[in-house]
């Protein structure tokens, strides 16, 4: 099969020409190429072209953009992105079988690079090459939060992200203070990103069909974070400690999470102007920033120096 026919085959497999038969076509394409979805890698391939178009449209690809896709699979998002005026498209695929197939599909497109690599070990700086990136991906459910953490650690290189998660995880990521599912993940994400849009994707849009629906989130970096880079490590420690026992008060969480005296926790909470009876799910980013600073002033973190 030549390169052009491979590309057309993948497009047909992903339901480009007949979205209603996407599941059947993907199954046939996987059989022809001797590929089998691996549950251990969370491989559930998107088959609905309309969903793929909406995801890539949300990325707002403009002329000259550098785009990176996490886990491209059979290439439904990549094929959509490649139709746009980007300058470079980097596909990061951990499965060597899929990476080899993608290289054949995009062999004639000089803008496309396929990396057979684990995204969790990838440094984005060489890919950005002094510029910035737009990131897209149908993230494997089993490592999605780890990938988001990796992206957050390199947020200065990213100007926009459109990522798909298991719906329950997405709801926790975008949960606001006071909501029952507001958690450490919610606050840690809010340190670096604003979520500007979200939409649901039904389980039937994938092959194999997962047991739960998915949700797409659109991320933009905060233009001005309310804390300095030198405070970030202590702030993250404070957040993790604060949610160490989310049903308890913030005072008790800090005592247990940081292994400090109740008096020290109470003093820091008072200095941060936080009601000591509040539970961690009630606190926003600004309050955690004040709390981390108060704990530092109390000398709580000096023991680690």
Oligomeric form of this entry?
single chain
CATH architecture descriptor name of the largest domain:
3-Layer(aba) Sandwich
Rg of Cα set: 22 Å
Record field, number of beta strands: 9
Named CATH topology of the largest domain: Rossmann fold
Question: Which class best fits the helix and strand makeup?
Answer: alpha/beta
State the helicity in percent bands. 40-55%
β-sheet strand percentage: 15-25%
Query: How would the global form be characterised?
Result: elongated
CA-CA gap between termini = 61 Å
Q: What is the H/E order?
A: HHEHEHEHEHEHEHHEEEHHHH
Supply the CATH class of the largest domain: Alpha Beta
Task: Please give the largest β-sheet.
Answer: 7 strands, mixed
Average pLDDT over all residues: 89
Number of helices: 13
Count of discrete structural domains: 2
């Amino acid at each position: 099969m030549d390169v052009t026919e491979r590309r057309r085959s993948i497009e047909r497999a992903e339901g480009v020409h007949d979205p209603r038969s996407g599941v059947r076509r993907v199954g046939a394409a996987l059989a022809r190429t001797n590929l089998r979805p691996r549950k251990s890698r969370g491989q559930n391939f998107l088959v609905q072209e309309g969903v793929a178009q909406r995801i890539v449209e949300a990325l707002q690809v403009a002329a000259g953009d550098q785009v990176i896709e996490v886990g491209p699979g059979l290439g439904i998002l990549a094929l959509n992105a490649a139709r746009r005026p980007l300058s470079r498209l980097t596909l990061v695929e951990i499965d060597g079988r899929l990476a080899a197939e993608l290289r054949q599909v995009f062999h004639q497109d000089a803008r496309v690079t396929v990396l057979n690599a684990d995204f969790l070990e990838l440094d984005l700086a060489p890919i950005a090459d002094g510029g910035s990136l737009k990131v897209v991906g149908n993230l494997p459910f089993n490592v999605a939060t780890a990938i988001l953490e990796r992206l957050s650690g390199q947020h200065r290189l990213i100007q926009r992200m459109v990522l798909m998660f298991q719906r329950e995880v997405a709801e926790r990521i975008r949960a606001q203070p006071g909501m029952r599912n507001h958690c450490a993940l919610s606050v840690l994400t809010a340190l670096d990103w604003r979520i500007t849009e979200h939409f649901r994707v039904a389980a039937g849009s994938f092959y194999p069909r997962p047991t739960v629906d998915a949700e797409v989130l659109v991320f933009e970096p905060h233009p001005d974070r309310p804390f300095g880079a030198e405070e970030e490590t202590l702030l993250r420690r404070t957040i993790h400690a604060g949610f160490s026992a989310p049903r308890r008060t913030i005072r008790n969480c800090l005592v247990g999470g940081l292994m400090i005296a109740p008096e020290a926790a109470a003093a820091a909470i008072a200095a941060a102007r936080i009601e000591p009876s509040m539970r961690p799910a009630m606190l926003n980013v600004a309050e955690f920033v004040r709390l981390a600073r108060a704990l530092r002033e109390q000398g709580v973190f000096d023991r680690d120096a």
